[in-house]
Amino acid sequence: MAGETNIDTLIREMEPKLHPGAYVFCSLPSNELPKGVQILASFREEEGMTLVVEQSEADQKGWDYEGTMGWITLSVHSALEAVGLTAAFSNALAQEGISCNVVAAFYHDHLFVPLSQAEDALNALQRLSANH
Predict the structure, then answer these.
(1) Which helix (H) or strand (E) holds 88?
(2) Cα 108 vs. chain centroid, distance in angstroms?
(3) 7-130 homologous superfamily
(4) Is 26 exposed, middle or buried (0-12, 13-18, 19+ CB in 10 A)?
(5) pTM summary value
(6) Which residues, at least 6 apart from 102, have a Cβ–Cβ distance to it below 8 Å?
(7) Would you give the DSSP letter of residue 10?
(8) b/e code 69-91 from CB counts within 10 Å (16+ = b)
(9) What is the pLDDT of residues 41-97, one digit of tens each?
(10) Where are the alpha helices (DSSP H) in 50-84?
(11) What are phi and psi of 118, to 5 degrees?
């Protein structure tokens, strides 16, 4: 099934879902993935390996991180070449004063927002979708 590219459909059908738990971004000096860790996302950067993991995983390993995040998935299957979705939800969150780190995967966009604002972010996204 091909991903959706129509911006109106994407916004109307994004169906944001807040996952339970707390998530963190960690940076490890090695560019190799550690073993025995449930990694949600990773990205190799010049400075090291960035990992997104549950806060409990990072705490168990003694890894440093800044802040805890809530994880929201936009359930709509957005095409990688879709235009405007990131701008639309970023603007809606910015109007509420909520920062957002986005991971675009093959099927869905995943938003990481400050854990203390996760419910507010979910509500803002639901309003955006309902009012579009």
Answers:
(1) helix 85-95
(2) 9
(3) VC0802-like (3.30.2130.10)
(4) buried
(5) 0.94
(6) 86, 90, 109, 110, 111, 112
(7) H
(8) bbbbbbebebeeebeebbebbee
(9) 999 999 999 999 999 999 999 999 999 999 999 999 999 999 999 999 999 999 999
(10) 55-61
(11) -65, -45
Burial 119-130 (b: 16+ CB within 10 A, else e): ebbbebbeebbe
Amino acid at the residue 68: T
Q: Return the structure tokens found at 109.
A: 């966009």
Q: How far is CA 31 from the centre of its chain?
A: 22
Phi, psi of 41 (to 5 degrees): -155, 155
Domain ranges of the chain: 7-130
Name residue 130's amino acid.
A
Residues 6+ apart with CB under 8 A from 132: 8, 11, 12
